Amino acid sequence: MPVVPMREILDRAFTERYGVAAINVVDDLSLEAVLAAATDLQAPLIVQTSLKTVKAIGVKPFYAFWRARADEVPVPVTLHLDHCPDREWISTCLRAGWNSVLFDGSELDVAENTRQTIEVVAEAERHGAQVEGEIESVMGVEDDIGSEEGGEIHPVEVSAAFIDATGVYSFAPAIGTAHGLYKAEPKLTPERVTELVATHPIPMVLHGGTGLTEAQFTDLIARGCAKVNISTALKIAFVDAHREFLDANPGKHDPPKLLAHVRAAVKEMAERHIRIFGSAGQAKAFDTTAA
Ligand SMILES: [Zn+2]
Q1: Of 96, 270, 275, 288, whose CB neighbour count within 10 A is largest?
Q2: Catalytic residue among 11, 40, 82, 144
C-alpha cells in the first residue's frame, strides 16, 4: 500500500475511537522494525521523526529509506515531523515529502503562534499535508526541545480559539503528561480532551505517553486522542537491547546478531502499544487497492 495522507489514517481512527501509534524512529533499523510490527498486526501506523533525527541523518537519506520501505508495506502508513519550532525546517520537510508536521510554537505567545500556524497550515495545504498544533509546551525535554518545567496552561477556550483561527488538522492539548520518564505519578486532566472534542471534533494528540497505564491510554483514546506518540519507549527498547546483548556477549563482535536483537526488542515494543491502542486489525478497513 502506498503512503497515505495523515488525514486518511486519523479521520477513521478518530471517528471509531481507536488510537494510532505515532512512533519516533531513530534510524533505518528502528523504522523497519516498527513497520514490521504494523504489518504483522494489520495496523495503520504513523512514523515520526524528531528534528534532531532529521538533522542527524539528513533529509534526503531519511526520506529515501523511508519511502523505499513504506512503499513495500501492506498497511497504511504516513510520515510526520514531531515538535518543530523552526519554520525553515518545516518548509524543508514539507518539500521533501513529509505528510504532516507539528509546528511547535508553544514558546511563542498565543497570538504569534496563531499567526505563524495559519501560515504553516496554508503552506502544508499546498503540499497536501496536515498540521498538528500546540499552544502549551509539553513538560520535559525531548530531543533538545522543551523545558523541564512545562509552560503556562491556558483555559480550554484559548485552545478552541486557536483551532478555529488556524484550521489545524489535529491538536496536542496539555493534559498533564510529560516527555521522558515520570518521576512521580502524573496528574492527568483528561476532561480537557473531552471539552475540546465537544466543540472542535478534530483528532487530539497524546504526547508523553510512556509510563501511562493501559487504562489511562484507553480512556484518553476513547475521549478523542487518535494519535498517540511513542518516543521514550522506543529509546528505552533500542538502547536497553544493545546493552543487554553486549553485557550477555562480552567477547562477541557480531553486528548482525546484535542488530537482530535490537530489532526484535523495538518490534515487540511497537506491537505492545499497537495492541493497547486498539489499532491492531484496523488496516483491513482501508482500501488497499488504491494507488
Ligand atoms: Zn511531544
Answers
A1: 270
A2: 82
